[in-house]
Amino acid sequence: MTTAIAPAYLWIGAQEQLIHKTKNYLRSILCAAAGCLRCIVCRQVDYEQHHAIMWLAPEKEQYTLEQIEVIHRTIAYRLDDGEHFFFILSKADNLSALCANNLLKSIEEPPVGYHFILLAEQIDAILPTIRSRCQTEIMHGSSTLSQHNLLAFFNTANGNNALTFLKELETSKIGERESIQLLDTLLAAWITQAKDAVTNNNINAYKQASVYIELLKKAYVKPPMPGSSKLFWRNLFLQFQAVA
Ligand SMILES: [Zn+2]
Q1: Domain identity same for 26 and 58
Q2: 115 with 81, same domain?
Q3: Percent helix, strand, coil in the chain (nearest 5)?
Q4: Which residues hold their Cβ within 5 A of ligand 1, which is an ion?
Q5: Disulfide check for 125: which of 55, 91, 93, 192 has CB 3.0–4.6 Å away?
Q6: Centroid of ligand 1 to alpha carbon of 48 (angstroms)
């Protein structure tokens, strides 16, 4: 359907970021409109209910051989031409050597149409034998980190350097969903600051916080559209600057 899909991927990053990336990727392949976010396929991917995806996670602390056995049994079925099936192994850091070795051959040469995506936080925790069989990608800056990076520009009242901000924004990976989370975090932070200001009888600080709270509430009404998150944050930054 799209460009060649590798037999096995190993993606390293923060858990939430990896799940987000995985779903985006799967939607781009399985949705007829390459990830429209609205169709039934996109929603099934989102809810982890798509028939061509098996989501796996360690039972308690570790993956079990039974789970690996399920994979073996599944790939024993031949897929139709052009059909794809994906195994997603989240927290692959928790694959024991025994389980990993059991998976090696399947990962190296899965039957046509079957693919593996291994998600892990630490590349060091992945056996070299697994690593060498996967197309590996290490995410730069987890989503929490990039949120944190941008946060610093919005949670203090002293005017921030616009150039520094724009540079930070350029390199950050902020999407629509993270933007909403970031708005939540900021709003909570400023409400706390406003309360503190009241407690400390600091009228100026209270006024300042209230202005920011208003700006954030307005921003909620018009959240970023797909692909416009950076523009959204740039505009919000300018508004913050204007009232600093
Ligand atoms: Zn779709």
Answers
A1: yes
A2: yes
A3: 55, 10, 35
A4: 31, 36, 39, 42
A5: 93
A6: 14
Please tell me whether the overall predicted TM-score, pTM, comes out greater than 0.70 for this model. no
Domain membership of residue 169 as a residue range: 143-243
Taking the centre of ligand 1 as the mean of its atom positions, its distance from the CA of residue 24, in whole angstroms, is 10
Tell me how far apart the alpha carbons of residues 117 and 9 are, in angstroms, rounded to a whole number.
Answer: 5
| Confidence category of residue 142, pLDDT binned at 50, 70, 90 | very low
51 three-state secondary structure: coil
Domain edge (last residue) among 138, 160, 178: 138
What does the CA dihedral 18, 22, 25, 26 come to, rounded to 10 degrees?
Answer: -170
**Which of 124, 126, 40 shows the shortest CA–CA distance to 89?**
126
Do 31 and 121 lie in one domain? The reply is: yes
pLDDT at 141 over 60: no
Distance 1 CA to ligand 1 centre (A): 14
